[in-house]
Amino acid sequence: MLWEKKPQAGGPEKPLPATAVPPDTSALEKPEKPMTDIAPRATPSVSTQQSSTLGRSVVIKGELAGKEDLMIEGQFEGTIDVAEHIVTVGAQGQVKSEIRARQVVVHGSVAGKITAREKIEIRRTGNVVGDLVAAGVAIEDGAYFKGSIEILREGRAETPKAQAATAQVTHSTPAIQTTRGDRS
Amino acid sequence: MLGTTARSSSGALPQGGPLPSFGLQWLWQYLEDVRYPQVLECGPLRSVTVRILLARCGKLYRADLVSPLERQEPALWDRSRKAPLFRTEVLLAELPSLSSASVSVILCWQLLDLLPRDAVSDVLLFFHRLLEPGGVIFCLLREPRLEKGIESAWRMESLTTLVREHEGSKPFVYPALSNRDIERLIPTGSVKTFLTRSGWREVLAVK
């Protein structure tokens, strides 16, 4: 060891001299607040570390409502309402339910209507039969989905013409063979 | 449900590049005045296709009718008789519940080429009932010279471009459909055809 401190011969270490000046921490000092003025640390209402899990062996029928994130690994039948939180259906989860949440992520099986204020994600192992209503929906390749998808739009001024422009429509003359009278 | 555990294959052949689809260009120009059309998509699930359609349509209905036919799902056939009978009602039961005249566009890709000939009329009549007046069925039909490729797959790259994910090497089982066949099977409306160089043509039947 290169930096091993060699014991001083002849006794313990010498104490600091009385003239040693402690470091100036005035710049780091924060004004003291009386205890009554210290506000408790606010817990965000939308991101909470609290969550509940229905384990794999759990089978529940009924109505489930809550104010925290929910992970379902077992079987659930009924309705789920966790409006401001996230519902995750695990790979082993089987849900026959209407789900209302802020965000829903499906790795397992869901049969029923899913309504999410923000987003619905169906992962590769997901199997969903039902209607989806959300501001955004993402379905991975390999997932199974049958039903309808409705996107919640907040009155944005996206006209079909603007969307067609972004799709880079070309107006070159294609090879057209019409077999009946054109309606256009 | 038919074959819910089977996943879509990625294909062994190299992926082709995006190709402009004149049929889809015509389709979206035709629907220019429809702000949020309702679309029924009947092909294998592709995340890109879903995302592109959701940006354009108000409501997207989805059910994969193509993959069960490619896999020759046993539930689609009644083999209790001497001649196997195709059970069209089982295939159409895969669709989500839809009311008549509620859909603006039906994208059925290569579905018609996978159906037995006596089932094509039933499926087209069913689709015709789902279409609202002025609605369009978009399908891909093979040219008679194309003998193989029953498991070909497409996905949208944009609203007006398609990518052929793999060409397929299995032979087609049923004879090719002609435009005259489609005209005869669609009760009312007109048929538009856009030819391509890939051996498939894009056919749009307008109600």
Short précis:
In chain A, 4% of the residues lie in helices and 43% in strands. By secondary structure, chain A is mainly β.
Key terms:
heterodimer, A: 184 residues, mainly beta, 9-stranded parallel beta sheet, 1 helix, 4% helix, B: 207 residues, alpha/beta, Rossmann fold, 3-stranded antiparallel beta sheet
Describe this protein's structure.
The complex is a heterodimer of chains A (184) and B (207). Chain A is mostly beta strands. Chain A has a domain at 51-151. Helix content of chain A is 4%, strand content 43%. The longest helix of chain A is centred in the last third of the chain and has 7 residues, at 160-166. Helix content of chain B is 26%, strand content 29%. In chain B, β4 and β5 (85-86) form a beta hairpin. Chain B contains 7 helices and 11 strands. In chain B, the strands form 3 sheets. A 6-stranded mixed beta sheet of chain B has the order 3-2-6-7-11-10, sandwiched between helices. A 3-stranded antiparallel beta sheet of chain B has the order 1-9-8. Chain B has helices spanning 22-30, 47-56, 66-70, 88-92, 111-114, 117-130, 179-185, and strands spanning 18-20, 38-41, 59-62, 77-78, 85-86, 103-109, 131-142, 153-158, 161-166, 190-195, 200-206. Chain B starts with 17 loop residues before the first strand and ends with a strand. The A-B interface holds A 127, 129, 131, 137-151, 153, 159-161, 163-164, 167-170, 174-184 and B 1, 4, 7-8, 20, 22, 25-26, 28-36, 45-47, 50-51, 54-56, 58-64, 94, 96, 158-161, 179-180, 183, 189-195, 206.
Element string of chain B (H = helix, E = strand)? EHEHEHEEHEHHEEEHEE
The helical percent of chain A reads under 10%
Largest beta-sheet characterization of chain B: 6 strands, mixed
Chain pair with largest interface:
A-B, 39 and 49 residues
Rg of chain A, nearest Å: 31 Å
Q: What secondary-structure arrangement, pairings included, does this model have?
A:
The complex is a heterodimer of chains A (184) and B (207).
Chain A: E1 51-54, E2 59-65, E3 69-72, E4 75-89, E5 94-106, E6 109-111, E7 114-122, E8 127-139, E9 144-151, H1 160-166, E10 176-178
Parallel strand pairs in A: 1-3, 2-4, 3-4, 4-5, 5-6, 5-7, 6-8, 7-8, 8-9
Chain B: E1 18-20, H1 22-30, E2 38-41, H2 47-56, E3 59-62, H3 66-70, E4 77-78, E5 85-86, H4 88-92, E6 103-109, H5 111-114, H6 117-130, E7 131-142, E8 153-158, E9 161-166, H7 179-185, E10 190-195, E11 200-206
